[in-house]
Amino acid sequence: MAKQELEIIIDENGEIQMDIKGMKGKKCLDFAQMVAKAVGELKDKKVKPEFYQQEVELSKDLRAKNE
How many CB atoms lie within 10 A of CB 20? Predict the structure, then answer.
């Protein structure tokens, strides 16, 4: 799993900027909305190219052989 980071910047006017790294697609948007509820209203939203990528989940199905 990729490292996930959240950077929040509050400028001198009290405006908040969030930079989310390591999340893709809907997962990133859902996370941003959750954080926005805690820190304040989002005026503008800009997405990075990663937003349009899909998360990939890898799993292995391991079964023991009966011998």
Answer: 21
> pTM surpassing 0.70?
no
pLDDT digits (tens, 9 = 90+) for 10-48: 889 888 888 888 888 888 888 888 888 887 777 777 878
**C-beta atoms surrounding 43 within 10 Å:** 8
| C-alpha distances out from residue 54 to 26, 28, 30, 42, 61, Å | 9, 11, 14, 24, 22
Structure tokens at 56: 């990939």
Give the total number of structural domains in the chain: 1
Query: Is residue 60 situated within a structural domain?
Result: no
Domain region containing 39: 5-51
